Sequence to fold (178 residues):
Amino acid sequence: MNRKILLHICCGVCASAAAQRLQREGFEVTGFFYNPNIHPPEEYRRRLEAAQAVAAKLHFTIAQGPYDTQSWFAAVKGMEQEKEGGRRCQACFQIRLEASYRKALEAGFAYFTTTLTISPHKESGLISRIGKSLDKDMFLDYDFKTEDGFKKAMQFSREQQIYRQHFCGCIFSARQVK
Fold:
């Protein structure tokens, strides 16, 4: 049975607990870092490096999607003033899960899922609905917050000195945090 799964990764911190859980459950994890929403480019680089460090520590490979900020800005145009968790976030989840699904199909993965559900600030049900709308059989519906996923991710990041960000990644969210 094909146990290969493509794990969309938003950041190294979230990747740690999600990848460990999938590995414990017998999946062969490949990470996919696709986040055109992250700004500025220096923040994107820090998060990519953190994800790569986690992949090295947990012994899984990681692929990088294109850093296509122009497409992301076009997709969220008109939603710049939305609060975090609103329509802009839904559009952002859609973009990243669609790219992950395409990558999973192209590379012959049996399944795909995302680390996005580990955050207590993200609505897992919404993320699940988007993933299932793409392919109800290929999308594995994990709420990585369960089983103390977020707590384990924070602990791992402290112990392994993994970069931990303080906003979702998009420039509009960063402005709301300040």
Summary: The domain at 4-177 is CATH 3.40.50.620 (Rossmann fold). Helices lie at 12-24, 41-58, 69-75, 87-107, 124-134, 149-160, 171-177. Residues 85 and 142 are 19 Å apart (CA to CA).
